[in-house]
Amino acid sequence: MKRYWLLFSQWVTVLLAIWFVVATLQPEWLRGARRSMDGMTLLQAPPTFGANRPVGSLSAPAHKASPAVVSINTRQGKNQNSNNQDPWFRFFYGEQDEQNPAGLGSGVIVSPEGHILTNNHVIEDADDIEVVLSDGRKAMAKVIGTDPDTDLALLQIPLTNLPVIVLGLTQDMQVGDVVLAIGNPFGVGQTVTSGIVSALGRNQLGINTFENFIQTDAAINPGNSGGALVDVNGNLMGINTAIYSRSGGSMGIGFAIPISTAKQVMQDLLKNGKVIRGWIGVEPQDLSPELAESFKLPQTGPNALRSGVVISGVLQNGPAAKAGIRPGDVIMRVSDHPVGNVSDLLNQVASLKPGVPADVVIWRQQTQLSLRLTPAERPSPKRQAR
Q1: Which numeric CATH code is attached to 278-377?
Q2: Which residue numbers are catalytic?
Q3: Are 162 and 174 in contact (CB under 8 A)?
Q4: Of 2.40.10.10, 1.20.120.450, 3.30.70.270, 2.30.30.90, which CATH number belongs to 170-272?
């Protein structure tokens, strides 16, 4: 008996050695080559496991972030039939049922309490908002608050055991970083696309009042609005908002609101139900050579104005008018922060606390002046009729 056992052990050892040599030198021999009835030989790759993904695969961040990205279905019942005649509305939402028009978008679960971040234009004018999770669960959402100036909205759903996305740090993002866009384009279901960060701090695009976009070439299409832009660690870096397109589809130029902006807006919406910003009541314009010449501003010499914002109009009895600001003045600084263009001025004034005086440095008639004004609360934007 001992002899048979020894013989068996020797054979097993030899076979294992042969298998090891073949697996090392000719692994294709072990890939299950099969011969069909037609005499065709097929080589079948061995199964791969989660820990052995191909080099360059982005499945890990997609798997981490996707459960927290939801689909949002909206329904509008009252006096909304005119939307069907608006080509911009049809581009984003398609042709709608005239009796019960509906819209599709995306959102991101940002807290275990059921808070969902999305775009304001996704849920604007909606009578009913249905949220569909990646696991198939559905719930009706309530609106915590909206901010049309940044096109953000905060919703909440009454569900538990929710997948929550991890918020990233926008300041760590750089041009060239790989990102994923996750959403529900055209209502086909959750979709992941990849690309890179093409640019940071995009503004003056005419999309929102306050703009500081992340530009990406990751494919973003109608229905992606409100979805997640995540980094290679699966952390939320932005909320997909808009695309530049001549055809209606993705052309490699998409824009996302940075999570740093979204966090600030969320805090205000949770606390006040709205975002409170400063406002001074002026009509600003970027300082161009033509405007500088028109207002007779110094363009050469030690007093030359190379940055600032020209005030072309002042609201009567507004905060700026009460402080003594006049048309033709150039605002150079707001509360010790330099003003380089209109976007800078909007952001600096918006950060002021209404009712709290602030110093403003202006240039008027070859003289630098310091004025003290008390900002008011920025009025809610007027809704445009469709």
Answers
A1: 2.30.42.10
A2: 121, 151, 225
A3: no
A4: 2.40.10.10
